[in-house]
Every structure is written in C-alpha cells, then in structure tokens.
Amino acid sequence: MTAQTTTTAYAYAAPAPKAPLERIAVERRALGEHDVLIDIKYAGICHSDIHTVRAEWGEGGTFPVVPGHEIAGVVAEVGPGVTRYAAGDRVGVGCFVDSCRECENCRGGLQQYCTGATGMIGTYAATGRDGKPTQGGYSQHIVVDENYVLRIPDALPLDAAAPLLCAGVTTYSPLAHWQAGPGRKVAVVGLGGLGHMAVKIAHAMGAEVTVLSQSLRKKDDGLRLGADHYHATSDPATFEALAGSFDLILNTVSADLDLGSYLGLLKTDGTLVQLGVPERPQEVGAFPLISGRRSYAGSLIGGIPETQEMLDFCAAHGIAADIELIRAEQVNEAYERVLASDVRYRFVIDAATI
Fold first, then answer.
1. Distance between CA atoms of 191 and 344, rounded to whole angstroms?
2. Is the predicted pLDDT of residue 1 greater than 50, yes or no?
3. Which of 75, 195, 287, 309 is the most buried (most CB within 10 A)?
4. Where do the structural domains in the chain lie, given as residue ranges?
C-alpha cells in the first residue's frame, strides 16, 4: 500500500436495502496529508447497523453500504502531516469520521452535534468530503483523518474494546453529563449491548445502579456486571414499588415504551434519557413531566475528546464489553440473533476472516 494511490479492501456490505450482507471489494481513498491508514482487527455489530441496512429509519441511503462504526485496529501508515499517530499504534474509530470543524459544537469537542454545512459525517452511509459514500468497519482497512481517530490504551484488549467506540461512549456520555456518581440512583432500561455497558460504567462511577428489564432472565448477569438491583418491567408492581426512586434513567432499548410510566420512576428534577431509537415517534404526556419537574432528554454518542476520555476511564477501571467473537461470514446469522436478543452482549467480527 502506498500513500499515492487508492487501495482496495475486502468488506461485507449490504448490496441493497434489506438484502443479506455479502463480501465485496471497496475502494479506500489515497492517504492524504493528515490521514491514517488503519488495519482493522475487529469490528463490533451495533443495532444501528441493522437499522441502516434494512432501511428501518426511513433513509433512502446509498447502496452497497458497508456497516460498522465500532472499529479497533492498528495503524499501518500515516500521511506526511500526521503528528498524533505512528505505525503500530493501537487505535479506534467510532460513529463518525469527520465534521465541519468550524461550528461552535465542533470547536467545543462536540462533533457529534455538528451544525455546520457538512454536519457530522458518519463512518458509513454518509457522504465524505470527497463526495463519495463513506464505508464502515466490516472491512480489512480504512483511511481516516487523524483528528477523528482514537487511541486505545494498552490495558484494553482490542476485540473487547471495539464496542466501546459506540456502545461505550453512548452510555458514558449521558452518565457523565448528568453526573452519575456516589449518592445518585441510576436505572438502566434494557440489558443488551448498550445496557450492559451502562451498568458497568455507572457502577464504576459510584452510582447505585438498577436494571429495569422485561423479565428476570438476565438478573444474574446484571448483578455480576455491577447492578445493585434488578426488576422486571413486565410486573406492574415494579412501577408502584419504584415510583419516584431515580435521579437518572437511561433508556437503551429501541422498542415502544409507555414513557409516562418510566417518567413516574424519577425523583423530582430527575431525567429520563433516550438512547435507543425506535422506528416510530414516541408519545410523552405532559403530566408525568410537570408533576415532578422531570425532564425527558436525548443523547447521541460523544465527541472525540469525550470518547477518548471514556476509553481512558474504561482502561483505568478494567471495563470492556462482554463479546462473542465471530467470523465475517457469520454476520447475517448474527443480525438475526441480535434481533432475537440472543447475544451476551455484543457481537464482534474478527476482521482477519474477511
């Protein structure tokens, strides 16, 4: 591979909406002045990948699309102007690979909320500065500007670190923003890819953690991961017993919920934060909000500085994702298992098998 030419990488892509993923060749751009060429070692499977390839968010999209925004790998080569990384460094790429760099949010390290002309440029299913579709991490390698690359600490194994680039920061960001910590009661709705990370991180921050899950099937796991309490939301008594209990609730599921019931679990001035993205709009009644000065909020991944902060926090506290490592040709089966909640708790593709 040379810095002067484009490179070809094999990847797994959806050739059309709702089509099974298949192995194809994609072109990666030539290495620019500030670009980093990354040999991808592992790529996590996020529910957003499934939503995108199955056109479940109503987006037309450009196909074929290579999903994957939980990328862990090793720097293979750098452009002549790169100062942050060198060949051999352990690095990651998350949910975006560029932004306008000029708006107030970008200058403040909140690139995920870019309001500039380009907006946040997603790692896949977006349009890069070169006018070409971005293609993600189910691939052998990727080229990314150094300013959008993260350093993965040596204390984190690369395979279990990959999901931190989305699931980790998606839960870390609201926990940090709403100040989860000692003396704070945090509830996590759902114990899946996002939820299991939320439990680990909130526990490490010192909060009292409760899992709210449809059943008690994963209770032992929840307690092992750091939850102090575990309740089944299928039991109406749960909502009576826990009314007014929590400072912060993270909703990690993408299903339709009775949000009024969950808002009723908050203390005065408590906040319910939406992380999962259901297919249909959610209804929020006024009374559950105004009766306790409660807030219903949203949170989207994290900016580059906060994502690095999250990686360093996880390394310091021995936190990584619970994963099931798969071969690339198992990706379609893995998608079905994600939809059936048959994974504990994140599938990760071994890129050596692509």
1. 9
2. no
3. 195
4. 7-166+321-353, 167-298
Please compute the mean of the pLDDT values over residues 19-46 and round it to a whole number. 97
For 159, residues 6+ apart whose C-beta sits below 8 A from its C-beta are 41, 42, 72, 323, 325, 348, 350
Question: In angstroms, what is the C-alpha Rg of the chain?
Answer: 20
313: helix, strand or coil: helix
- Whether the CB-CB separation of 154 and 90 falls below 8 Å is answered with yes
> Under a CB-based contact definition with an 8 Å cutoff, are residues 276 and 252 in contact?
yes
User: 137: Cβ–Cβ under 8 A, 6 or more apart, which residues?
Assistant: 40, 43, 66, 67, 68, 69, 70, 71, 93, 123, 124, 351
User: Contact at 8 Å (CB) between 346 and 323?
Assistant: yes
Q: Which tokens sit at 308?
A: 């690095």
pTM of the model: 0.94
> Which two tokens mark 291?
């009766």
Q: 7-166+321-353 maps to which CATH number?
A: 3.90.180.10
Domain 167-298 top-level CATH class: alpha beta
118 pLDDT exceeds 70? yes
Beta carbons of 48 and 69 less than 8 angstroms apart: yes
CA distances from 138 to 17, 22, 165, 214 (A): 17, 11, 14, 31
